[in-house]
Amino acid sequence: MYKFAWMKPAFGRAAGLFGAWARLGMAVMVGAVALPGPQAHAQTEPEAPQRISCAAVSAATCTVAKSLKRGVNFGGMLEAPKEGQWGATVMPAYMDVAGAHFQTVRLPVRWSNHAAVTEDGLIDEVFARRVDFIVDTLLMKGLYVILDFHHHTQMVGSKLHTGEYAVEERLLEKRFLNMWRQIEGRYRYRSPKLIFEILNEPYGKQTPARWNALAAKVVSIIRVHNPQRTVIVGVPYIGLSAAYDELVMPNDPHLIMGAHSYDPFDFTHQWVPNAVTCCSPDQRAQMVANLDKMAAWSVRTGYPVHLGEFGAIENAPLDARAAYARIMRDGAEARGMGWAYWDFVTTFAVYPKAANNWLEPIRAALLD
Ligand code: GLC
Fold it and tell me: From the CB of 16, is ligand 1 less than 6 Å away?
């Protein structure tokens, strides 16, 4: 049972809720939650913030990192246990709009719920063709596509989502690797604009030590047929900045680090409206500090960073959501970082499904 199942009917899907609470729990664990205190003070953003580095990667991956620019997450679509189960499907019109206004689409795909429960993890061909169609349509529009392995809840040890099926624990890792064998083989001839992301927001059972080892295994599997494809490696503890130092990048020159940022969390994740607004000098300082940590990590390690998720939920006041989006987008761009807003049409939408149109203040904050 979901810990928060009782909230589902009133506040949307438990998956987001569960992820959000897990994220907060992790923040507490790694000491990343800043408690307001007498020392809290506003900071002004430096005029020329540190920019991400490419010192450890190939010229091609550096070009990819710099070309990702403005992106959007196709959240809640192939991310659901079955496409449509969370009320959204990938519509041709969404791909048109994304193609006309963004450089990148991050495509969260729940591969694990479309594969045999046996060790081979044989991926359902009908589902895989659906993914092919979406990937190819987006690529044909000239977009970069981040094919993100999203929500394998058992791999991180969280509760199954409604409609998600279980796999025997002892088969989990081998099956995960076997799914990657199929994915990397399937997309081996696609354009270098297709990027693989190993696993969204590793946390829980994916302790830093386990995650570092697993990421290295997946990269070596991907290299069998995709010797130079750019791969995004996420940060342990759901991408929290306090955990950057625990990430050991696999020894490979075609990698980008994938960071997420949802601070101030009580603002971005008000599943129940709580009247928290944004962005006071302290809130802004928190946001900017995260971006600075990403850039500093990049300079220290030589791997570029992509800001793969940030966004604020629809329950937050619209003007504050727009102010938040503007600060994050400007801040990422000032550091030379590509970004992908969470998300396109669902709970955090910039192009809400019901309106089937832009939410103008957020569109302007991201794209003008
Ligand atoms: C993560 C979760 C997703 C959630 C989003 C915002 O990507 O996997 O379900 O909606 O963060 O909290």
Answer: yes
Rounded distance, CA 345 to CA 94, Å?
A: 9
Average pLDDT over residues 235-254: 88
Lowest mean pLDDT across 192-196, 234-238, 317-321, 359-363: 234-238
CA 62 to chain centre: 19
Atom 6 of ligand 1, nearest CA residue:
16
C-alpha to C-alpha distances, 91 to 96, 149, 151, 239, nearest whole angstrom: 9, 20, 21, 29
341, β-bridge pairs: 72
Ligand 1 contact via 164 beta carbon (within 6 Å):
no
* pTM of the predicted model as reported, rounded to 2 decimal places: 0.91
Angstrom distance (rounded) from CA 299 to CA 55: 8
E strands, the chain, in order: 70-73, 104-109, 144-149, 194-197, 231-234, 255-260, 305-309, 338-341
